[in-house]
Design a protein that fits this description.
CATH class: Alpha Beta
CATH superfamily: Phosphoribosylformylglycinamidine synthase subunit PurS
Radius of gyration: 16 Å
Distance between the termini: 33 Å
Structural class: alpha+beta
CATH topology: Mth169, Chain: A
Largest sheet: 4 strands, antiparallel
Strand content: 25-35%
Strand order of the largest sheet: 2-1-3-4
CATH architecture: 2-Layer Sandwich
Order of helices and strands: EHEHEHE
Number of domains: 1
Length: 100
């Protein structure tokens, strides 16, 4: 059985987000009244077996998937395969924050 884990990486609130600002301006030009946009990255990690070690996933997120100087991350452990696709649009229900 495979276990899927979701990791969301976002810029820290204190870090400027030029890509988010560009998206916000484009949305406003298209007639959408958007005050703020923050962009980020979304990762799905699949592991073999029935369980996932939370410390391993946190280490991967901190050391490989994010830059802890400018980014925070959230981990959702584990995501059953049948609901993984529907979880993308929802906020993670069970998270571990990688804030420093």
């Amino acid at each position: 059985m495979e276990m899927k884990t979701l990791v969301i990486v976002k810029l820290k609130k204190s870090v400027l987000d030029p890509q988010g600002e560009t998206i916000r301006r484009a949305l406003n030009k298209l007639g959408y009244s958007v005050q703020s946009v923050r962009q980020g990255k979304y990762f799905e990690l699949e592991f073999d077996g029935n369980s996932v070690d939370p410390d391993t996933v946190e280490a991967i997120s901190r050391d490989v998937l994010s830059n802890p100087i400018i980014e925070d991350f959230q981990v959702q452990l584990p995501v059953p395969q049948s609901t993984a696709e529907t979880q993308r649009a929802d906020s993670p229900k069970s998270t571990r924050d990688g804030k420093t």
